[in-house]
């Protein structure tokens, strides 16, 4: 399907074209570029202009550039003054021609999983456009918009931030009909004075609402009044969700089981029963927010509830799988919860709750009882309270059922020292050193969580666990917090 002609892209960006081409997609990465894509030569860690020739060789229809690189056919270039501004203009033009309804999502935790829930739920009642990854920053949002088919019924736009002032311009670019805030939690505190500052930044998503739009926010938070005030300032309709009395969509009873979460709730002024096929209270509550979106869009309630029960979070945010340690005896296995993509206090607490609810297998390994084991890496960007926030993890109720905690990084040493001696595993400076120990640490019947900020490289621990396998890993449940 054609997405952009040369003339349409030039009109959208105010750029110059010397040739006639058609683009079926938009890409910023030559490693994943598809035939017929428009390659956007952004300047990030490296200058995208250095890869234009490669992109064209790999099948790109043309390239969005600020200069024609040496040796590149000018007829294959859309030349603009600034590539980032050109991408933003392309995204704004795509939004202008879009006739469907737009949902914007933000939050300290659960943006991506909620976006994927929405993809599944809305997809049962129309065609949906959403980014395949967490494209939620200053280039990710316009890229998602620029890729948006004009004839889709719904679009789901994920919006994130690292510093004050980032969300509002992205929200105005998205021009959503419904905007949702999942949760406000300590994350990026190095750039904010306090949690209230983060809440005000998250509430800025409501500034992008179209006239007559609906704002949806989590009512369970200490900073919920800030979200509510922001919602009332910019939305015609305001809905809340959560577990506390007064929420428009309220979870009454949440049952976290080993392989799913079942919820009795009240929504649409009626009792409902729904489930998500992943253990975790946070998934259940965010699912209620998704159902509130469906309500705001006037969708069929029964179909929305049924679709939510079919959702699994995408890979890359935590894959739950069984690692077979013996090619013959399937009981000789370790269950892995890979959540090594990112971490902050709220998401770590949620992941520990999932581990605490997991069921190890007894009598199959060297030890008589299976164990719940966590490999935890530093949580970054927490500001001046970073040491105390790491120490506080030791006091979480979810720590009770967890048997051993291994810690990686200088900040996690504070947690390691705060743990009861019986739970204290190993501490290492780097994930690479910890990865060298996993074969000795783990036993058949164990359930293992790996989590940390991306820069800590906890993925190396995950890779080491997967290398224990004597057979291909069998995916069971995916989770994303």
Automatic annotation (TrEMBL):
- Where's the Mur ligase central domain? 105-294
Q: Which Pfam families match?
A: Mur_ligase, Mur_ligase_C, Mur_ligase_M
GO BP annotations listed: cell division; cell wall organization; peptidoglycan biosynthetic process; regulation of cell shape
Please state every residue range assigned to the domain named Mur ligase N-terminal catalytic.
24-69
Q: In which pathway does it act?
A: Cell wall biogenesis; peptidoglycan biosynthesis
Gene Ontology cellular component annotations, sorted alphabetically: cytoplasm
Q: Where does ATP bind?
A: 107-113
Where in this chain does the record put each Mur ligase C-terminal domain?
329-453
Stated name of the protein: UDP-N-acetylmuramoyl-tripeptide--D-alanyl-D-alanine ligase
Record has Transcription regulation as a keyword: no
As for what it does, the entry says:
Involved in cell wall formation. Catalyzes the final step in the synthesis of UDP-N-acetylmuramoyl-pentapeptide, the precursor of murein.
Family to which this protein belongs: Belongs to the MurCDEF family. MurF subfamily.
* Compartment(s): Cytoplasm
Query: What catalytic reaction does the record list?
Result: D-alanyl-D-alanine + UDP-N-acetyl-alpha-D-muramoyl-L-alanyl-gamma-D-glutamyl-meso-2,6-diaminopimelate + ATP = UDP-N-acetyl-alpha-D-muramoyl-L-alanyl-gamma-D-glutamyl-meso-2,6-diaminopimeloyl-D-alanyl-D-alanine + ADP + phosphate + H(+)
For molecular function, the Gene Ontology terms on record are: ATP binding; UDP-N-acetylmuramoyl-tripeptide-D-alanyl-D-alanine ligase activity
At the highest ranks, the source species' classification is: Bacteria, Pseudomonadati, Pseudomonadota, Alphaproteobacteria, Rhodobacterales
User: Which terms are listed as keywords in the entry?
Assistant: ATP-binding, Cell cycle, Cell division, Cell shape, Cell wall biogenesis/degradation, Cytoplasm, Ligase, Nucleotide-binding, Peptidoglycan synthesis
Question: What EC number(s) does this enzyme carry?
Answer: 6.3.2.10
């Amino acid at each position: 399907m054609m997405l952009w002609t040369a003339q349409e892209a030039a009109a959208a960006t105010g750029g110059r074209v010397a040739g006639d081409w058609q683009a079926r997609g938009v890409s910023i990465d030559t490693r994943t570029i598809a035939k017929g894509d428009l390659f956007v030569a952004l300047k990030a860690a490296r200058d995208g202009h250095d890869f234009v020739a490669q992109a064209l060789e790999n099948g790109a229809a043309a390239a969005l550039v600020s200069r024609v690189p040496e040796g590149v056919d000018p007829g294959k270039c859309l030349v603009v003054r600034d590539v980032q501004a050109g991408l933003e203009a392309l995204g704004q033009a795509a939004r202008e021609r879009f006739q469907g309804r737009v949902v914007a999502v933000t939050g300290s935790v659960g943006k991506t999983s909620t976006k994927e829930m929405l993809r599944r739920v809305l997809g049962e009642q129309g065609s949906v456009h959403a980014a395949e990854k967490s494209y939620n920053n200053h280039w990710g949002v316009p890229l998602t918009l620029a890729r948006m088919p004009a004839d889709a019924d719904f679009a789901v736009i994920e919006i994130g931030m690292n510093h004050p002032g980032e969300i509002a311009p992205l929200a105005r670019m998205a021009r959503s009909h419904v905007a949702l805030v999942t949760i406000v939690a300590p994350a990026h505190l190095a750039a904010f004075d306090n949690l209230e500052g983060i809440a005000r930044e998250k509430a800025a998503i409501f500034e992008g609402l179209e006239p007559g739009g609906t704002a949806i926010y989590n009512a369970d938070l200490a900073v919920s009044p800030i979200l509510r005030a922001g919602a009332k300032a910019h939305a015609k309709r305001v809905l809340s969700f959560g577990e506390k009395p007064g929420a428009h969509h309220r979870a009454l009873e949440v049952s976290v089981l080993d392989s799913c979460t079942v919820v009795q709730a009240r929504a649409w002024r009626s009792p409902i029963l729904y489930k998500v096929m992943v253990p975790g209270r946070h998934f259940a509550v965010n699912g209620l927010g998704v159902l509130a979106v469906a309500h705001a869009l006037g969708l069929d309630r029964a179909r929305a509830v049924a679709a939510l029960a079919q959702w699994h979070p995408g890979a890359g945010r935590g894959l739950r799988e069984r690692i077979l340690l013996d090619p013959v005896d399937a009981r000789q296995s370790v269950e892995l919860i890979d959540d090594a993509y990112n971490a902050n206090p709220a998401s770590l607490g949620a992941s520990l709750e999932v581990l605490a609810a997991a069921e190890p297998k007894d009598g199959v390994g060297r030890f008589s009882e299976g164990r719940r084991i966590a490999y935890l890496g530093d949580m970054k960007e927490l500001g001046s309270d970073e040491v105390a926030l790491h120490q506080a993890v030791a006091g979480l109720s979810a720590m009770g059922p967890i048997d051993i905690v291994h810690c990686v990084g200088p900040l996690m040493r504070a947690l390691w020292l705060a743990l009861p001696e019986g739970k204290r595993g190993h501490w290492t400076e780097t994930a690479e050193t910890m990865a060298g120990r996993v074969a000795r640490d783990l036993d058949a019947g164990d359930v293992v969580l790996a989590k940390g900020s991306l820069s800590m490289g906890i993925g190396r621990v995950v890779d080491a666990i997967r290398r224990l396998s004597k057979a291909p890993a069998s995916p069971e449940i995916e989770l994303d917090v």
